[in-house]
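Following up on my earlier thread - several people asked me to post the actual chain instead of describing it. Fair enough. Here it is, all 649 residues.
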Amino acid sequence: MCQIVGFSNTKAPNAIQQTNKTLYQGNTEYNYIYIKLPLAITGNTAVEKQKELTARYFENTKQLYMKLAVKMPEKPGIAGSEMIPVYADIAEYGLVSDDIAYVKVQQLEGGSTPMVQQALQFIKHQLPGKAYPGYDMKDNGDKKSFVLALAGMMQSIAALKMGEDNALKLSSKCKEVETNKSFVRLTHPNFKKYGGGLRVKKVILNDNWNKMTSQYESTYGQEYLYTTTELINGKPAVISSGVAAWEPSIGSYENPHKEIMRFMNHNKGGPYDFGAIEMPLGEIFYPSPMVGYSRVEVLSIHRDTVKNLPTRQVTEFFTTKEFPFKSAHTPLTDPEANVKYEPKAILQLLKLDMKKAVTQSQGFLVDMNDMNGKVKTQSTYSALDSLVPVSFTESFYNVEKAPGNTYTFNHNFPTINSPEGLLNNSLIGRDIELMADFRQHKTETITTNISANFDFFFIGIFPIPLTNLLQPVIYEGMTYRSASILKVVNHYGILDSVVSIDKGSMVSTKNLVYDAETGNPLLTRTNNEHDKAIYNFSYPAHWAYSGMGPAYKNIDAVYENLTFRHGLLENKIDKSIFESGDEMYVFTEKNKGPLKKAPCDVPKLFDLYLQKNTANKIWAVNTAKVGSLTPQVVFMDANGNPYTAEGNP
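Reply from S.P.:
Thanks for posting it. Predicted structure:
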């Protein structure tokens, strides 16, 4: 967070303008913000300075987040400022001097700057007693209350003419900012950030050899370095390799991914009232706040005190910097996403059509992955050469390079789904979950009037009555429908190949074909140090033994109203869903089994039903597994007795 030094309306302010602490003067609102830079810009030319300013402070920044300490109107014994968060779209930025930058913010639709609009909206909604005279009269006497109420009424009359915000500005509400307490969020110039948590710095082992033999004792150990080299403004700089997967939702003001999506409530002739939804949407699906390291170097603690210098081991990891979580949404401004029906004004005036309807639909997408922490490379360096590794191993995943030093996933793999060996292209390593919410709210009002008014006129001597008993019935209705779709996509990193180099000899292993059922590699190719290919094929066990297939095919299957007779299922269902060895839970409320039908089930007087098996767990046994000439699926209890029971019809 960088300190704000002042506000004005020019990119080349003088000393007074640069330190101006007011957000507006009269009807002029200042849309230039001057910021103190913690690290001065060192470029020689204007182009170099602008490029360095972008690289150090404004890279990938579209919205400027501010925390303004705005002074509130004083009351007896009550004074001070309120910390008001403000988001503003950046229109332009540059340098006033080597250590002072300016940012020009875009004005909102009503013509105000985000700073003035947010400050005035805060005092109107949160502190109305300070915004409107006479609003809070609980501590005032009668005469004073009357005078304050008159003053508030006069201000309201003035607001009708010039606008509520202009009336507040006329009385200098929320005009001054305490700049020593106000800050903006910029990128840290040295890519440094303070955070909690612990990491291993050094591990030392002491053998205490002198206590056993009265000889010299020795210490062993390793030291861990968590640094990497990053290009900042085109120059290499040593920085921490730590990458925050995410930040806590409370207090995450420095999270650069936090932006807002504005919406506006504006009635014709009324003030502009802006609201905001904080981005990213779907933050609940984002990773937990933690720090991972993209590069870890392991060194011996005796690397500078021995003759035989030990090696250095470096491991690099993928992090959320290369594989960030992403979210997107469809706009409600799309005509097809926000459909309204409203009858013409003349029909509403004549009470002929009073039905209105609003239908809104919006889709949301959250894109996730599991690449944070996966090993990228492992290298071993000699003490005398820090550039060329002695041994090197690199892992390649199903990813492709994308702009902005990020990656995209490729989920298309060659697969085999049966022992026949037919090769297909399949999607592996991607889960999609879809959640939908549909709502409807409808109100109807039917109004009718019956007026018993009579009048007469005569035709000759005969009276003719007139009446208006038949009044029109008025139907009023309001219908609101909404449809919201949330799509959560989870990408999994699939290891594609591994390349190892040891003292100039290279060995590589690549996965060529995958199992369409499990996603495990079936065919791999290894090129040895002589550049000769060695192939290895794994035959999936579930191809040879169906009982070793995945459980998803029948897990949680539920059937009702079944009849088991002597271990055989009589209902006409697809029995291929049962696999020999499947365990099932059964439940029936009947006290007896099915009627006796088989030749051996000779009905006896008062004994027309088979005896029910009281087991709650049964197992499926495929007799074909033991060489039966008439294969069938038999259901038995834990003691090997055939199961007999009948469900409710």
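The first strand starts at residue 2 and ends at 8. That should answer part of your original question.
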